[in-house]
Amino acid sequence: MNSRLSAARSNTQDTLNDYKKRMKEDIKSLKENFLRIVEAARYEERSQLSKTTASLYDTSQVQVRAAKIVLAGENLMKLIAELKTFLVIYDFPAINENLKKRSNALEEETKKIKSNLLTIREDLGDQLYPGEDEYYSTLRPLKAQGSAK
């Protein structure tokens, strides 16, 4: 049992470390590609290339880097979705705490309802007792008259 628990913790730590590594790589890719786009946008005099060739090269570089930025952004969005799923699945202490709070709240509500029902029963008994007395006392003379005939 103890080895299972340590294996689960190790697996969880490995997963978290993998998430952290992926996040760092994607953020690094975003930053690096953005810097390359800014560098490509700067005008530099290139004596070996014609202006048209340099412009086409810079345009293609910007497109490639922009595509890489989009890919890194999509990877980060997928990572966020995986983290949310991971949190929902493996956040047992929070789930247990919420269940315990809800259970305690329901127990308190049950106690209040039972108390109210007992109070209502006592009040109803107090109200019905005189009526029952009156009802049964009126039946006695009728029984007496019925037996006399």
From TrEMBL:
Component of the Mediator complex, a coactivator involved in the regulated transcription of nearly all RNA polymerase II-dependent genes. Mediator functions as a bridge to convey information from gene-specific regulatory proteins to the basal RNA polymerase II transcription machinery. Mediator is recruited to promoters by direct interactions with regulatory proteins and serves as a scaffold for the assembly of a functional preinitiation complex with RNA polymerase II and the general transcription factors. Keywords: Nucleus, Transcription, Transcription regulation. Transmembrane segments: none annotated. Coiled coil: none annotated. It holds the Pfam family Med22. This is Mediator of RNA polymerase II transcription subunit 22. It is found in: Nucleus.
